[in-house]
Amino acid sequence: MHDALLQTPEGDRVRCGLCPHRCLIAEGSRGVCGARGVVDGRLVALTYGMVSSLAADPIEKKPVFHYCPGTRVLSLGSVG
Fold first, then answer.
1. Burial class of 63 by CB neighbour count within 10 A (0 to 12, 13 to 18, 19+)
2. Where are the domains of the chain?
3. 14 by DSSP, 3-state: which?
4. Which residues pair with 13 in a beta bridge?
5. pTM score, two decimals?
6. For the stretch 20-33, what's the b/e string if a residue is b when 16 or more beta carbons lie within 10 angstroms of its beta carbon?
7. What CA–CA distance (Å, rounded) separates 39 from 58?
8. How many whole angstroms separate alpha carbon 53 and alpha carbon 57?
C-alpha cells in the first residue's frame, strides 16, 4: 500500500482531497471510490498496482486520435 496524496487529518478520521467527493474516512474504512482507505491513521491507495483492464484499442477511440491515425494504443485502467 502506498500513501495517497492530499490527505488532511480531522480528529480520528482523514479527509481525502483526491476527488470532489472529499470523503471523511474512518480507520479501516474506504472512500466512495473504494480505492482509498485509512490504515494506521494514514490515507492509502488500496488498489495501487492493481490492473482492472488492459486493451489495445484503435487510437481513434482516444482523445489523441490525431496522433498517428490508423494505429493502436495501449489502454490501462485501475479501480477507483
1. exposed
2. 2-45, 50-80
3. strand
4. 10, 26
5. 0.69
6. eeebebeeeebbeb
7. 40
8. 12
* Residues 16, 31: Cα–Cα separation, whole Å: 8
The owner of cell 480528529 is 11
Give the model confidence (pLDDT) of 10-63 as tens digits. 999 999 999 999 999 999 999 999 999 999 999 999 998 899 999 999 999 988
Instruction: Collect all residues with Cβ–Cβ distance below 8 Å to 66 and sequence separation of at least 6.
Output: none
Q: Decide: residue 54, CB within 10 A, 0-12 exposed, 13-18 middle, 19+ buried.
A: exposed
pLDDT at 2: 81
Residue written as cell 483492464?
Answer: 53
